[in-house]
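Title: Prediction job returns without error message
Component: structure pipeline
Severity: low
Priority: P3
Assignee: unassigned

Description:
Job completed but the reporter wants confirmation the result is attached to the right record. Sequence as submitted:
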Amino acid sequence: MFAGRKFAAFLFDMDGTVINSIAAAERVWAEWAHRQGLDVAAFLPTIHGVRAIETIGRLALPGVDAAHEAYVLLQAEAADLDGILPIAGAAAFLASLPPERWAIVTSAPRSLALLRMEAAGIPVPALMVAGEDVSHGKPAPDCFLLAAKQLGVDIGDCLVFEDAPAGIAAAEAAGASVMVISATHQHPLPTQHAAIDGYEGVDTTIDENGWIALEPQRNAA
């Protein structure tokens, strides 16, 4: 698991990576898709890890204003926080990191991200890059590049924690190392990257310069 590597910073996607909000998100999006006459089962897998405005825009639905619909969906998602849970071990893992050495990098709007993290008991980071902070969302690398810049580190010295193909592609395009979180995957995700189910089996060490090494937890079986 990145033996011998140290990282200047850790960058975390949110949904599916530090929290599980799939049930809540899919309830809202399923209702929206039904109203649009879409095949709900086929559509729902496309919503994860991507900004709502881009998900809607790709559909090119006649007479549909993507920005307006994204706003409507945001209000509905903000009102439905039932069943949002932390990924195993995520809260303690994040709390153990130096505040200036990690960030949340999410496709969700900032207001929704804060609501969901609070619902899941996830600590609010000193730095968050949200969907509205970039012109091009995942799989474009802009969000991860911006996070590294704001932390004052080189993106090549960052480890990105991701769960969705769009986010993994964004991290790869940015030039970061990648750890895949598979906690919410119903089926194995084909990937060349290291993968863990959650954070309960991993630990970190911090050197005198603040760089972080990831290693198996000492008391893990």
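Comment from assignee: result matches the submitted record. The chain is about 35% helix and 15% strand.
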